[in-house]
Amino acid sequence: MGDASAALNYCQQALETTSNMKERYSRAVALTIKGHALVELEQLQAAKEAYLQAVEIWRDNDQYFLAVDPISGLARLALHQDQPAQALELVEEILTHLETNSLDGTLDPYWI
Length: 112
Description:
Elements: H1 4-17, H2 24-40, H3 44-60, H4 64-80, H5 84-100
């Protein structure tokens, strides 16, 4: 709703709640949203780390279709940091995925 600080706070609470659980889905979702909030707060390195952690969780669980959410966040971050070649590489990864799959089941297809 436009309040990145509140979003970051809620994500931190979610990550603390799930820290001792095997519930990796909730952690990956919280990390993705945390990345979005951190970009808005100009904490770019921390945002990148959150997105990368989320991608790792999805890939470790063979849920690549969910990894496209944080990958798109990484692409946005690359553009924000004036790294268009890196952004394009990430977008191409998403487009390759879309050649044989859809965005059904992703967290936020519109955002991707």
